[in-house]
Amino acid sequence: MESPVKVLFLTSCVRGGGPGWSLFYLLKYLDRSAVDPTVVLPAAGVLAGRLESIQVRYRICPQLPERLYTLRFARAGRVRYLLSALWNFVDGCRAFVALVRFIRAEKFHLIYCNNMLVKAIGAFAGQVTGTPVILHCRNIHDSFLRRTLLVQIARLPAVRRVVCISQAAEGPYRFSGKTTVVPNGVDLSEYHPERVTGRLRAELGLGEEDIIVGYLGRIVPWKGLDVLIDAARIVLQQRRGVQFCIVGENPVGATRDLGAEYRQRAVGHGISDHVHFLGFREDVRPYLRDFNLLALPSKEPEPFGRVNIEAMAMGVPVIATAHGGPAEIIEDGVDSFLVPPKDPEALARKILWLISDLEACRAFGARARKKVCERFDAAKVAGRIEGVIGEATERRR
Length: 397
What we know:
This protein is α/β, with parallel strands linked by helices. The chain folds into two domains: about 5-185 and about 375-395, 3-Layer(aba) Sandwich (Rossmann fold); about 200-375, Rossmann fold, CATH 3.40.50.2000. The protein is about 40% helix and about 15% strand. It has helices at about 15-30, 45-55, 80-105, 120-130, 145-155, 165-170, 200-205, 225-240, 260-270, 285-290, 305-315, 325-330, 345-355, 360-375, 380-395; strands at about 5-10, 35-40, 55-60, 110-115, 135, 160-165, 180, 210-215, 240-245, 275-280, 295, 320, 335-340. Strands 3-2-1-4-5-6-7 form a seven-stranded parallel β-sheet, sandwiched between helices. It has a six-stranded parallel β-sheet with strand order 10-9-8-11-12-13, sandwiched between helices. α8 crosses α13 (about 345-355) and α11 packs across α14 (about 360-375). The mean pLDDT is about 90.
């Protein structure tokens, strides 16, 4: 039997998020007799502890970019921005040199770039060392400059495969003949409604009869929390007992406190006592468990929308906008629902319709979990990625 493929996984995600958790569950279910993984990341964060729990080696490289742009000074200013850009570039070069040395010393068979910020460094390191590279595309690239740059990186001979989490994310890479669509997976043993105890109702002093519409994710403009709060105002005009719970926070390094702006929006609508901002939660399952439904009103197309399959795995139906990845996950009116983007009235109508019959709501949730078990099981997804790794290294078991 051949020895395992030594794979270096590069990631800039240290706090989890969609790319971070997707990588964790991939590593959890990879066949270690086929793949021997090592992870390089910029800081320990949340992810390092989870990697230790599944006995995956990792190495910290502080120069690896964690964010697209890092301001290196306490105060902003044109000169400080330019100096920060130069500092970031120097750090990127240092990370590249360290990575090339590490690859040569450890004799890795493959470099696996988990997300956008590590693609350039990983692909060029593969080109220099003669190591095959896989790019995992987890974004929809709307910027012409960024899209052009990443497509040119995908053209490099060292890049053997481009794994895309959805057809929506595949778009600019489709020309290359290197793409394969593999959706994110969810751990069905962890995300199981009968194995998780809810925490949210007790935390807020709510009873089982209270209806909870939840949101889970980063607080960023394109996620559409303003649409959700506007929809909440319409819903509460007809059903005062509904609670809207937002689990998430502003991204690290954000220069704008959107959370505070959205709180003020709820105050302006006179519904602040029904809109709860809960902040970041490392384990979201006890909160999902208490949701009656999840709303994901993204104004721009989601590349995938990992929270959709997490909620559906917990038996929670989803109302998401009808573009991007969610439109590929959800069968509208069968296992969950799709609504037009930027339309609070449509979102409110669907929420009101769904919560008007909680038995029907639970039936949608059961069908949602059934779909996730069939199509988005993390163990099956890991098996598909193993096949891609085998193709990229020309090693088939």
